[in-house]
Specification:
alpha+beta
Length: 105
C-alpha cells in the first residue's frame, strides 16, 4: 500500500462545471479505498492509503473526474518513497525544483 497526499485546484469558470468536477474528483479519490483509510479535513487536500502508485492514482482520478488539463491542477506525492506526479495547468514550476523527482503527466 502507498500513502499519498493529493492536492488539487479546480478552476472556477462556471458554478456548474466547478461543482461537477469538484464532486467527481472527491468521489474518485475515495473510490475503492480500503477500510475508509483517508483523511480530508482541509480544503482540496487528502491523505490516502491506496494500492496504486502516485502516477497511476493521479491518472485515474483525473480521468474519472473529468478534470480539465488546461484549467485544473492535481499534485500527488507518495509520503514513503521519492515519487510524485503532477497534472494540469501548473504555471509555477517551482514544484519541479522543490520536488525534482516529480513526474509530469
Amino acid at each position: 500500500m502507498a500513502t499519498l497526499t493529493v492536492s488539487f485546484d479546480i478552476h472556477y469558470d462556471t458554478e456548474a462545471n466547478y461543482d461537477r468536477i469538484y464532486k467527481a474528483l472527491n468521489e474518485s479519490i475515495r473510490k475503492g479505498l480500503p477500510n475508509s483509510k483517508w483523511w480530508a479535513e482541509t480544503t482540496s487536500f487528502y491523505v490516502v492509503d491506496v494500492g496504486e502508485n502516485a502516477g497511476t492514482f493521479l491518472g485515474r482520478i483525473a480521468r474519472e473526474s473529468g478534470a480539465r488539463r488546461t484549467m485544473d491542477k492535481i499534485v500527488v506525492l507518495d509520503v514513503n518513497t521519492k515519487s510524485a506526479a503532477r497534472w494540469g495547468n501548473i504555471r509555477d514550476t517551482t514544484i519541479d525544483v522543490l520536488v525534482p523527482f516529480i513526474q509530469k503527466l
